[in-house]
Specification:
By secondary structure, the chain is mainly α. It has helices spanning about 1-35, 35-75, 75-95. The protein has a domain at about 50-99. The chain contains three helices and no strands.
């Protein structure tokens, strides 16, 4: 007898949760329809701000890339100079191909 009561109680609790979830879905849909103009306004403001901020961020990103590139390139200048001198010496000692 106790198992039957627990089973019925479980079914009642499940039915209550299903009803509560259905009610919440209806409330959520109602609020979304009610607040749709504000959502559209949010999208418009976001798009305008993106159009204003995106070029600034692009230029800042280019400047940062140039600075980082220079910071990584400058320490390699002595090695590049040595490689250039070796290339010049090897090229000067070579005989012309067609003489």
């Amino acid at each position: 007898m106790g198992v039957l009561v627990l089973g019925l109680l479980a079914v009642a609790v499940c039915a209550a949760f299903i009803g509560l979830f259905a009610l919440m879905v209806i409330v959520k849909l109602f609020l979304r329809i009610l607040l749709l103009p504000l959502l559209l306004l949010k999208w418009i403001v976001g798009a305008v701000l993106f159009l204003l901020v995106a070029p600034v961020l692009f230029v800042a990103g280019l400047l940062i890339a140039l600075v980082l590139g220079a910071a990584l390139f400058v320490p390699l200048l002595p090695f590049i100079a040595v490689a250039f001198l070796v290339w010049v010496l090897v090229r000067a000692n070579r005989r012309p191909v067609l003489a």
